[in-house]
Design a protein that fits this description.
Blueprint: E1 3-7, H1 9-12, E2 25-29, H2 36-47, E3 50-53, H3 55-67, H4 75-81, E4 87-92, E5 95-100, E6 103-104, H5 112-121, H6 125-139, E7 144-148, H7 151-155, E8 161-166, H8 169-182, H9 189-205, E9 218-221, H10 227-241
Parallel strand pairs: 2-7, 2-8, 3-7, 8-9
Antiparallel strand pairs: 1-4, 4-5, 5-6
Helix pairs in contact: 2-10, 3-5, 8-9
């Protein structure tokens, strides 16, 4: 069985609250390379919840921007693209497929270039405003593990459980480099570390919903921990809170 979320301009004008919530909302925030996606997927699977990758939405917008040959830093032109953009998330047992205007871009949005552009467009207020109600709509019914960078502070401030992952920058760079190599993208460790540091600065300095742990988030440093150990730690915390 698969589920589909279609993001259009018409939908983006309406915020959906937590009325009719059928389960807890769990958020996992943190910078690049801390293992958010892998951990969130495994936690969702263990709990039997849905997995929501909000970063894929910003990557999809970045893909549209680059495909349209628009400068990601050009706020006005990027904003003009949004009304004519349709992003579709198709979730199944095999994972989440991302379509932009009907084209499957699942593999293409994981390149270093798209990551860089996503970091830039995510700082544009119009983009964040366009995607905010859609993220809330996707998690409104609950029973979801959502991962991103501003979920506990901005998207789901009333989430039932919040986690913020951290890791040393050299560890994060090594992880990201290995991910890129596995996907066929060769980059030196130094290059990857510079990209991560630059993205951290942009995420932390943006005017709207900057990267920061929520006051009530549980902080976990993943530098020396494996995925299974982190997930077990999360499940133990969740069991005491929910």
């Amino acid at each position: 069985m698969s589920s589909r979320t279609i993001i259009t301009r018409q939908q983006s004008g309406h915020s959906v609250g937590q009325r009719g919530k059928q389960g807890p909302i769990i958020t996992i925030d943190g910078p690049a390379g801390v293992g958010k996606s892998t951990i969130a997927k495994q936690l969702a699977s263990r709990l039997g919840y849905r997995y929501l990758d909000t970063g894929a939405l910003y990557r999809a917008v970045a893909w549209k921007v680059r495909a349209s040959e628009v400068d990601p830093a050009d706020h006005r032109t990027v904003a003009k693209l949004l009304p004519e953009t349709c992003i579709t998330l198709e979730q199944s047992r095999d994972g989440v497929r991302v379509l932009v205007d009907g084209q499957d871009v699942t593999g293409e949005i994981r390149t270093p270039e798209i990551s860089e552009s996503a970091s830039v467009v995510s700082a544009i207020p119009a983009v964040r405003q366009w995607l905010l109600p859609i993220q809330r709509q996707a998690g409104a019914s609950g029973g979801v593990v959502a991962e991103g960078r501003d979920l506990g502070t901005h998207v789901f401030p009333e989430a039932d459980m919040k986690f913020f992952l951290e890791a040393d920058v050299d560890v994060r760079a090594a992880r990201r480099r290995d991910q890129l190599r596995a996907a066929g993208h060769v980059e030196s460790l130094a290059q990857t570390e510079e990209r991560i540091k630059a993205r951290d600065l942009r995420d932390q300095a943006r005017a709207v919903a900057p990267l920061a742990p929520a006051a009530d988030a549980r902080l976990i440093n993943t530098s020396a921990l494996g995925v299974d150990a982190i997930v077990e730690q999360m499940i133990a915390v969740i069991a005491t809170k929910l």
